[in-house]
Amino acid sequence: MSDRPDPGAPVLTIDGPSGSGKGTVARQVAQALGWHLLDSGALYRAVGLLAAERGIDATDVPALAALARELPIAFAATDEGVSVRLEGRARDHDLRTEEAGAAASAVAALAPVRDALLARQRAFRQAPGLVADGRDMGTVVFPDAPCKVFLTASAEERARRRLNQLMEKGVAATLDALLADIRLRDARDSERSVAPLRAADGALRIDSTGMSVGQVVGQVLDFVHLHGLQS
Ligand code: DC
Question: How far is CA 144 from CA 118, 125, 131, in A?
Fold first, then answer.
């Protein structure tokens, strides 16, 4: 993929809180449509992870913005989907930890970091189309996207999903602690002054509580077809 965006390529934005199933849904929809995929959370996680590893202080905003601007990140296609490489090394596992998520949430509240990542995110807009997953895809990064989805699920359901994921990995956790963590992160992501989490105007709202991934993917694909973006 070249670095030059194609402003004419269609974009489907999928925004929503942690644990709403956005990542899985975005991946499956992109696969079904044969479109590119942008996991914007991975960019914020990469800034948080590399900042911690390089000893950059959480209050050193210019250094964090410089890191975001020069972020040595690449996305490589694999059999399972997409692998994220930092400085040429696959770091998928390290990027998915709770610590990386918390570090991402902190750097994501800084306007200079968000600004530094804008052009890089927009470079993903290429033919035949892009599915962009995040918090501000429909509101800030791709405000002109023809199709926007806002995916939610109750905090309890999201905590239960997270608990199941962790149990599968053999990681100990409690539902109460996960629920408290999800509520804290929701508050931080939606109450921050820059690019707070909110549904874009005209976004299709889907509450995935009690729905299977397949059902959500089906609804999103119907929505894309309704807009005449894919036959
Ligand atoms: O989707 P995720 O869990 O990988 O996101 C990690 C953090 O990054 C989350 O706290 C919110 C933030 N984020 C953001 O502010 N804007 C985005 N477009 C994507 C993620």
Answer: 14, 12, 13
- What's the average pLDDT block by block, 10 residues per block, for the chain (231 residues)? 80 92 94 94 97 95 97 86 90 90 91 96 95 95 96 94 88 92 85 85 94 96 88 45
Q: Domain boundaries in the chain? A: 11-223
What is the atom index within ligand 1 of the atom nearest the CA of 45?
Answer: 6
* 11-223: CATH architecture: 3-Layer(aba) Sandwich (3.40)
Residue 16: CB within 6 Å of ligand 1? no
Q: Are the beta carbons of 87 and 72 closer than 8 angstroms?
A: yes
Alpha-carbon distances of 17 from 35, 151, 155, rounded to whole Å = 23, 8, 9
**Rounded to whole angstroms, how far apart are CA atoms 92 and 89?**
9
- pLDDT at residue 231 in the model: 45
